[in-house]
């Protein structure tokens, strides 16, 4: 197979021009006919419509109108405007506006926007507690801090690798997953990500509700939980807590309306105000403690032996990868908006570990300062702020309100970037005829409410462990995608084949649209970690199984990647450049190129009609 060059521009053939001339000629003839003929044609059309309407029952007419009302109208999926109004479920699944490659005018994220994005992501209540894992495992504060540097450096590396397909080909995660797993089996891969997005959105919304609780308590008093009559009758939720959760949830809804490329302004504002609140909170806590830090109080279990120390280091490093497994997987969803091929690479590679190291150090210092005041290790800043309200001074109440307000906005931004937008994007790949990114984000918000996150958070240790353990499944997916893109295809993707189910297209693989090599590799990547996954949720398993599980992300990622390469070696796939060698050729991005997709809708329409890439002119190319 010869390798087509990206950066395509479709030039209509003579056949297309003749069709258009004929259509224009017919239109002119009709418009210049006599009034009598026009009236006759109108009468015929009216009569036919009336006849058709009488044949359709009223319930069916109502149902058809309802379906037409809720259907997502596609603006540029075809040259023919009539086809834009309605598409079959399969046609919409294959190609729709939300999953189309991102055009130049929407690729507005430069390197600084990715820095702002991760500032917004790092400074939130959930990640504030990342340093607690190592300390609870017996490490001291500086050992934990080094592990955080190492762990999030690995995260940055995996994230940048996953971003490249989105950055260069401007496609989202659902489309990128079709390349490795197949056009139809990718549905299962997308469902995995949607489930986690909905659960995490509920979790972060609950934490946002806690911020609202502190804001209201700082205004109306610290006893609102008892002053507001409790009628729910749950051990995990009171009327006041539910009220605060709903306030945060409702305030979040308008932000889901905006398209992803316009949310850069939200992340910019969030990245500007959140660090001030975080450092302000740290300084305030240090002042209250008169500068005293109880660093020794962080290790409640005392000294540990060398073997235990080694495994504690490993688990502390792996906790970073476990917590980031969902964002690593859907990295193309944001990388596709990058202005250049490098906008999303170096900025994330440097900013991400630095920012998470900074926020973890703030968490360590705040916890040790608070210990000198209250004799308890508080790993959440919200717990410390709640204690400040025990002293009802005007300064305490004002400080708690302002910091809680910024933290609430911070939780909102984290929900948008990590959950709502990825879930919305993924849902467009599941049922795009009726769901676009905006509707998908709102569906995710509704599901996050329905899962009752207050019940999940009531057992926080098991809940957090179970969520992290889900990395067992996501790491195997990420490993297959890495091996397929870098090792097998050397960075080459034909985006026309990403949006078709025609027989013989590269990413259909077979009539079931499934790459069985990827599925087997995915299962092989899960298998070694599955016993440990059960052990993490309190099922009794052998100790060695847990030790394998402690390396879960690396284990799943590497085993699935290696298995996939071996299977492809013995059972080759199509869509691979002819001049590359699977094993000997180590130039993993040799065939990766930046492409332009300004006329992609027309090009794809021609490709679908003719199934012949020779009709596409590849001479116009805009490389970055």
UniProtKB/TrEMBL annotation:
<feature type="transmembrane region" description="Helical">
    <location>
        <begin position="519"/>
        <end position="541"/>
    </location>
</feature>
<feature type="transmembrane region" description="Helical">
    <location>
        <begin position="437"/>
        <end position="456"/>
    </location>
</feature>
<keyword id="KW-1133">Transmembrane helix</keyword>
<feature type="transmembrane region" description="Helical">
    <location>
        <begin position="142"/>
        <end position="162"/>
    </location>
</feature>
<feature type="transmembrane region" description="Helical">
    <location>
        <begin position="265"/>
        <end position="287"/>
    </location>
</feature>
<feature type="compositionally biased region" description="Polar residues">
    <location>
        <begin position="1"/>
        <end position="11"/>
    </location>
</feature>
<feature type="transmembrane region" description="Helical">
    <location>
        <begin position="462"/>
        <end position="487"/>
    </location>
</feature>
<dbReference type="InterPro" id="IPR001248">
    <property type="entry name" value="Pur-cyt_permease"/>
</dbReference>
<dbReference type="GO" id="GO:0015213">
    <property type="term" value="F:uridine transmembrane transporter activity"/>
</dbReference>
<dbReference type="GO" id="GO:0005886">
    <property type="term" value="C:plasma membrane"/>
</dbReference>
<dbReference type="InterPro" id="IPR045225">
    <property type="entry name" value="Uracil/uridine/allantoin_perm"/>
</dbReference>
<dbReference type="GO" id="GO:0015205">
    <property type="term" value="F:nucleobase transmembrane transporter activity"/>
</dbReference>
<feature type="transmembrane region" description="Helical">
    <location>
        <begin position="553"/>
        <end position="571"/>
    </location>
</feature>
<keyword id="KW-0812">Transmembrane</keyword>
<protein>
    <recommendedName>
        <fullName>Allantoin permease</fullName>
    </recommendedName>
</protein>
<feature type="transmembrane region" description="Helical">
    <location>
        <begin position="194"/>
        <end position="216"/>
    </location>
</feature>
<feature type="transmembrane region" description="Helical">
    <location>
        <begin position="111"/>
        <end position="130"/>
    </location>
</feature>
<feature type="transmembrane region" description="Helical">
    <location>
        <begin position="237"/>
        <end position="259"/>
    </location>
</feature>
<keyword id="KW-0472">Membrane</keyword>
<comment type="similarity">
    <text>Belongs to the purine-cytosine permease (2.A.39) family.</text>
</comment>
<dbReference type="Pfam" id="PF02133">
    <property type="entry name" value="Transp_cyt_pur"/>
</dbReference>
<feature type="region of interest" description="Disordered">
    <location>
        <begin position="1"/>
        <end position="22"/>
    </location>
</feature>
<feature type="transmembrane region" description="Helical">
    <location>
        <begin position="349"/>
        <end position="374"/>
    </location>
</feature>
<dbReference type="InterPro" id="IPR012681">
    <property type="entry name" value="NCS1"/>
</dbReference>
């Amino acid at each position: 197979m010869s390798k087509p060059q990206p950066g395509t521009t479709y030039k209509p053939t003579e056949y297309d021009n003749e069709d258009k001339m004929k259509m224009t000629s017919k239109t002119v003839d009709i418009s210049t006919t006599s009034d009598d003929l026009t009236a006759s044609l109108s009468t015929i059309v009216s009569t036919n419509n009336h006849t058709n309407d009488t044949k359709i029952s009223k319930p069916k007419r109502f149902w058809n109108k309802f379906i037409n009302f809720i259907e997502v109208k596609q603006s540029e999926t075809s040259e023919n405007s009539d086809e834009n109004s309605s598409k079959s479920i399969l046609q919409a699944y294959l190609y729709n506006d939300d999953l189309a490659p991102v055009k130049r005018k929407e690729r507005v994220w430069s390197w600084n926007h990715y820095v702002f994005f991760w500032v917004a992501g790092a400074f939130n209540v959930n990640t504030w507690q990342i340093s607690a894992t190592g300390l609870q495992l017996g490490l001291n504060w500086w050992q934990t801090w080094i592990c955080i540097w190492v762990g999030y450096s690995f995260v940055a590396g995996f994230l940048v690798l996953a971003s490249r397909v989105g950055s260069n080909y401007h496609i989202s995660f659902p489309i990128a997953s079709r390349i490795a797993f197949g056009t139809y089996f990718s549905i299962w891969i997308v469902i995995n990500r949607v489930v986690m997005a909905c659960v995490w959105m509920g979790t972060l919304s609950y934490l946002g509700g806690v911020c609202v609780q502190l804001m209201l308590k700082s205004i109306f008093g610290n006893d609102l939980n008892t002053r507001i009559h409790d009628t729910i009758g749950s051990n995990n939720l009171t009327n006041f807590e539910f009220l605060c959760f709903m306030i945060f949830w409702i305030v979040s809804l308008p932000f889901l309306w905006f398209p992803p490329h316009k949310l850069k302004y939200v992340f910019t504002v969030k990245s500007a105000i959140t660090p001030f609140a975080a450092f302000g909170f740290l300084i305030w806590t240090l002042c209250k403690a008169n500068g005293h830090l109880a660093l020794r109080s962080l290790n409640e279990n005392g000294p540990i032996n060398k073997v235990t120390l080694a495994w504690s280091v490993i688990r502390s490093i792996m906790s970073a990868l476990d917590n980031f497994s969902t964002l690593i997987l859907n990295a193309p969803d944001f990388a596709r908006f990058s202005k250049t091929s490098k906008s999303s690479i170096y900025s994330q590679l440097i900013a991400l570990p630095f920012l998470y190291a900074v926020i973890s150090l703030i968490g360590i210092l705040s916890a040790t300062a608070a210990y000198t005041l209250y004799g308890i290790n508080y790993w959440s800043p919200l717990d410390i702020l709640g204690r400040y309200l025990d002293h009802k001074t005007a300064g305490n109440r004002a400080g708690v309100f302002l910091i809680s307000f910024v933290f609430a906005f911070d939780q909102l931004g984290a929900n948008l970037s990590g959950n709502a937008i990825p879930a919305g994007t993924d849902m467009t790949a599941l049922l795009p005829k009726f769901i676009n990114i905006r509707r998908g984000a709102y569906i995710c918000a509704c599901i996050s409410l329905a899962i009752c996150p207050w019940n999940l958070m009531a057992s926080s240790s098991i809940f957090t462990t179970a969520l992290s353990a889900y990395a067992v499944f996501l790491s195997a997916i990420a490993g297959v995608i890495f091996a397929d893109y870098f090792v097998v295809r050397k960075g080459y993707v034909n985006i026309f084949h990403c949006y078709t189910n025609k027989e013989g297209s590269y990413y259909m693989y077979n009539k079931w649209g499934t790459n069985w090599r990827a599925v087997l590799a995915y299962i092989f990547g899960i298998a070694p970690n599955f016993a440990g996954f059960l052990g993490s949720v309190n099922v009794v398993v052998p100790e060695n199984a847990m030790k394998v599980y402690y390396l879960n992300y690396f284990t799943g990622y590497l085993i699935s990647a290696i298995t996939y390469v071996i299977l492809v070696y013995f059972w080759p796939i199509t869509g691979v450049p002819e001049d590359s060698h699977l094993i000997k050729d180590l130039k993993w991005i040799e065939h990766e190129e930046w492409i332009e997709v300004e006329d992609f809708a027309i090009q794809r329409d021609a490709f679908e009609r003719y199934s012949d890439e020779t009709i596409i002119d590849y001479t116009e190319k805009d490389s970055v």
